[in-house]
Specification:
Pfam families: DUF551 (PF04448). It comes from Castellaniella denitrificans. This is DUF551 domain-containing protein. The protein is of the alpha+beta class. The chain folds into two domains: 38 residues; 63 residues, no CATH class. The chain has a five-stranded antiparallel sheet, with no helix packed on it. Strand 2 and strand 3 form a beta hairpin. The longest helix has 21 residues. The chain is rod-shaped. The protein starts with a helix and ends in a 14-residue tail after the last strand. The relative contact order is 0.15.
């Protein structure tokens, strides 16, 4: 949801003629504030203990770096790695000084950018 400033302007114009519109305006402002808080929470670093463990690709972080990974505690071969967060990146430079860094925080990956009009979809 985006902040609809035009709707706020329309409601303010109504206020000039109808004091009863104040609760409607306040409800709209409250709904917009709640949506902003929800979006901020989604885009904030969360403790690793709250990360999804269903194989969803997420952004992981520690004091040494950040990387994309998914939770995979047991490989198909039966091997159980010390670090159950399986990196989805090609090299380990992103993990900083510790090549087997364990994450301390996570966040959802951002949405992919919208396709530009006229762009080929190969």
């Amino acid at each position: 949801m985006t902040i609809n400033t035009q709707k706020l302007r329309d409601l303010l114009a109504i206020l000039e003629d109808d004091v009863g519109a104040v609760p409607i305006l306040l409800d709209h402002i409250e709904a917009q504030s709640a949506e902003i808080a929800r979006l901020n929470a989604i885009q904030a670093w969360q403790p690793i203990e709250t990360a999804p463990k269903d194989g969803t690709a997420i952004l992981l972080g520690s004091s040494d770096g950040a990387w994309i990974a998914k939770y995979d505690p047991v490989y198909p071969s039966g091997y159980r790695p010390k670090n159950p967060w399986f990196s989805l990146m090609l090299n380990r430079d992103y993990m900083g000084r510790v090549p087997n860094a364990k994450p301390t925080h996570w966040m959802s990956l951002p949405a992919a950018p919208s396709a530009l009009s006229g762009e080929s979809k190969c």
